[in-house]
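Submission sheet (multi-component)
Chains listed below:
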Amino acid sequence: MGGAAGPLSGLHVVDLSTYVAGPSATAVLAQLGADVVRVDPLGGATDTRRLPLAPDGSSLYWSGLNQGKRSIEVDLRSEAGRDVVRTLLAVPGPGHGILVSNAVGQGWLAHEALLAHRPDLIQVHIAGRRDGRPAVDYTVNCEVGLPWLTGPVDSQLPVNHVLPAWDLLTGLHTALAVVAAVRERDSSGSGRIIELALADVAAVTMGQLGFVADVAVNGSARLRDGNYLYGSFGCDFATTDGRRVMVVALTERHWQHLVDLTGTREVVGALEGALHTDFGNEEARYRNRDVLSALLAPWFAARTHAEVVVALEQGQVLWGDYRTLEELVNAPDSPVRSGDLFAETEHPTGASFPVARSALRSRGWGERTPTVPVLGADTDDVLRDWLDLDDSKLAELHAAGALGSS
Amino acid sequence: MGGAAGPLSGLHVVDLSTYVAGPSATAVLAQLGADVVRVDPLGGATDTRRLPLAPDGSSLYWSGLNQGKRSIEVDLRSEAGRDVVRTLLAVPGPGHGILVSNAVGQGWLAHEALLAHRPDLIQVHIAGRRDGRPAVDYTVNCEVGLPWLTGPVDSQLPVNHVLPAWDLLTGLHTALAVVAAVRERDSSGSGRIIELALADVAAVTMGQLGFVADVAVNGSARLRDGNYLYGSFGCDFATTDGRRVMVVALTERHWQHLVDLTGTREVVGALEGALHTDFGNEEARYRNRDVLSALLAPWFAARTHAEVVVALEQGQVLWGDYRTLEELVNAPDSPVRSGDLFAETEHPTGASFPVARSALRSRGWGERTPTVPVLGADTDDVLRDWLDLDDSKLAELHAAGALGSS
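Outcome: structure written.
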């Protein structure tokens, strides 16, 4: 595994992170060719048994987030176990000495303490909040205002998101930090600690998207708006057989295709004349979204889903289909069934399921068939591979209780 | 700007992308020190005037997504204008020759065509779908199943998200692709094209999080679940004065703190005994989330928000506050008011507002004060800076109509 193809081959990452943000970061690094070792305490960290589970009790959550890595189990409370981690970080060479962590209050993982073992260590540390207080995706999301903007217009309650978007974005910032720091170290010879916080990623992103500037400049924010796309025209329509499609007219061309398809040119033109506006302009479409969607809805309501799909494709309308998770996985045209994007992987201890490849497609990248680790199963292999330990030394460490599994 | 500090200083990126994914990628590269030039067609691309707007009509959306970049305006329909872009890509040196694009069907931006001008070009091209068909965040999100899982349990309709999470994740994958490809080119001398699609990022991410494996292995997916956190205990509670807080007990320690705070040890213990379960186990908390939240709710409902906040902090409970966007920006403890995370930037043509720094904190990184471009205002500067053009050559290009603004 240490020699996999990809732009990050030659990098060796020690992953002491848990839950979503850190593990998703190192999973992406592994997809791009890095050799990633996830280190768990004996018995597994607190995220090891999270739902959903396979029938054999193994965590499909843990499997997905740790795909492409090797798993080792170490007694992180003992000095002997901690020495194993420090020694893994101290392996010579420009591709080693990389740590991703998110443990709170663990002094032995403090950057200053680790520098004694690896002076050019690169460490990315993920916190909940920048002052060290804990936070998770759900406690961060409510603070940036989005749950009051999500859901039906007449809803009186906040609506949480289901996708842990802040975790995932923090993960990709983490992966970017690792690669940027490696590039810097390759030329300067110096490592560094990079810190980031889930709450900061959320706030900064809200700034990037104009949410913050809108309030700062205009004094108030956009309002809750149901399933409408903000700032242009986009909404969902029901078909006669009870399915729904999302239709978007982001550009004038998209809009004209939609008007043509639905045969509403005359009525839309009359409305434009009466309102002295031009729906070729996205702001005009947005301001009049309720009347426009009401004008378009009957066309959809009079057709079956199958008829609508054919017509939307032929009419070059920008649209998407509302699917269930089951349909995402099982539809004949499911991306999950595409061998380019997912590989069917035999889990070593149980069920077989599709495991994702990198979304980045480039010749020679991502050719590694993704694998799923078993907790602790690679402990001896990694120590042989990275540290050149022989059987007697491994037996000694096992006897001392420093290592688990394998 | 070409010499800004940060791990990506020395990189020069030509940004021909629009909307959210590509621009957010290059904004992050700029935050880390890259010199990014956003290229717009004369008058600006179709995303130039998107809502929200400042009172002067400038787009706060465009400003946020293009922060830290310079803006040039080029007639992209003329050969003279296209030559300007090709020449910018052909500037010698290992930090040049980097392009981010997402235009559909523009043959002159095809990787093969550009290689004649820069044989080691790095190009990251973002598509909606991998087969080239268009898609945007909202038409991708509905296809991965999340809108049927979002919102109140009794809702009969899908609920779209408001955060363009797939755009943002695609953007960070793009930024990662750029830096990974640069590292590879630094050692191999070879450039490459990397392609990614919004729809693929969404599918792969659903795989990483275990959603796909859950259906593949167990035959069905989790159900719509309101504001509950999946797989452990987390939900929102109302205070007596009508505010809401999100409370999460991810670990056993979190749970014990919450039980202690709310004085529910006895009743929770009786329930555990009667149900033969142990709420120290996260799966047990999740399975019994309705009864547990009902047991805890009266404690919150009997207290004001101010009382609840003090008690949650003192009790070391993991929680977050439901805030509006206005509160995110204007609260006394707002991250937006932290000089470390945002800088108040005077927009050259209008309003002043807070602009985000990088979420990655490390000594010497992100010290650049973020700036906001004005469409086309840097055209001459960039051409002088990157191409060493003198005034007469610039005047010639302006006279030929190849350039806009400045």
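Remark: Chain A has a mean pLDDT of 94.
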